[in-house]
Fold this protein.
Amino acid sequence: MPNLTINNIKVQAPDGTTILDAARQAGIQIPTLCYLKDVQAIGACRICLVEVEGARTLVASCATPINEGMVIKTNSKRVRDGRRTVMELLLSEHSGDCQTCVRSDDCELRRLAKEFGVSEVRYEGQRRSLPIDDSTPALRRDPGKCIKCRRCVTVCSEVQGVCGLFPQKRGFNTTVGPAFSEPLNDVVCVQCGQCGAVCPVGAIVEHDEIESVFAALENPKKHVVVQTAPAIRAALGECFGYPPGTLVTGKMVTALRRLGFKGVFDTNFTADLTIMEEGTELLTRLKNVLVEKKEVALPMFTSCSPGWIKYMEHYHPDMLGHLSTCKSPQQMFGALAKTYYAEKIGKPAEDIFVVSIMPCTAKKFEAQRPEMTASGFQDVDVVLTTRELGRMIDRAGIDFKSLPDEVMDNPLGIGSGAADIFANTGGVMEAALRTAYEIITGKKFPFEDLHVKPLAGLEGIKVAEIQIKEAKSEWKFLEGVTVRVAVAHTLGNAERVIQRVRSGQDTFHFVEVMTCPGGCIGGGGQPRMTDNEVRKARIQAIYKEDESKQLRKSHENPQVLQIYSEFLGAPLGKKSHHLLHTKYMPREKV
């Protein structure tokens, strides 16, 4: 525990701690740009410069470990001048126009320039003319705004393991982007948007489709409906100044109605439907293995996260059979809105326009997959992120904080608490276990408060076991079986699970994978910055939403039971298989 002095304050911190972390533990804030907590400390931007007594130059606090007896100044004139100079040099190459940039009010570069008192840029640096990359349906890259902090590189390689972005060339000519400056659409990119979520400026943002939605709302021929993912209700409030984890479900519904949507529905409804379909699929696979002695792909992996699906198509095409054939809840909703719902209201499918509000940029890609046309039309027409919805509400002049609370519409607006927790890492698995256990045994789910504690929290890989001590007659073959499940969030952790399965190190029956840190609550389309404290607040809000409901199990949702009796028939039946299931394709790994 070295002793040091920071700004005349005596500080003690564990050996190996950086100056930045030691200062923060002492309540002293040092500005950063390239730094990502718990992920990287490379000292690339030099904004975190501090003065260390005896050192010849200013040092990057994020990458410099503390030593016994260090005397550090974080706010001397030398430090302030150094940071201001670094900021001016960054601004001299930055081609951003703050008046029109979508990140203008959420730009770390702009905020720090103001904090440092930069009122003019003394250096008129040369600026490179670089083309904008809008090749993907999810993301838009503007390399001219890039400040080369390498956050996107770190999250893409170290967190997601995709390695789709690299710094190329040297010095002034350095460019951060896909290999050989190819468009994102032509290389391995799962379009998860985590690069944009950590970008401090507007160099990587979601593909904005707000005007497409306004145009549909103003088209008298279109019956425009909207679905909202469970993660939205715990994060949308941040766009309007609420603390992270504030539930704004009722205000969100009211805002959507005032925007002009004819139907305001809940993706939770089809999340419950997903549990019915996916659970039946898993039980069918287990029966084929244990009773029919057939070779079936186990473990079965969840298929709700489109970034994860695309990752498997690129990196593990030989394991596509392990993926559940279920569409994601978003796509199930789109298919039902243009069939079941269209019949209910007496309108043709081509007149139904489906908008999704999602925490995920990859959902934009998923909606445009050619196989997502079970209704005869594109099942989901437009996907907006949480951030886009926040901007749309502002653009419409709606005072969000003053709105009353309203409830979702029927018949696609009722969801269980089990569907709510789809937003959290571990939530899909817990929801599936609540239903599968009760279907198999006929007994109440044994976990206190219905929560499977080993599956909660932000640990990267989580494992749980449930023993089936007794089973109903049709499921007798599962009696005595210990069901092993695993949960992974981020693609880096998913890859570790895959390697454990491939090597025989671990055996699982069912594996949940979510692409983004913390699950959907940490999605690439959520309000930023999303660190672990924000993730924890949103996760707790989602659990609170679940616990506040009387209906907390998917198989008890009365409207799910109704749609099976009126329209779908049975889980994995002919109609449900056509509308609610899909297949995936191998992709090149470029």
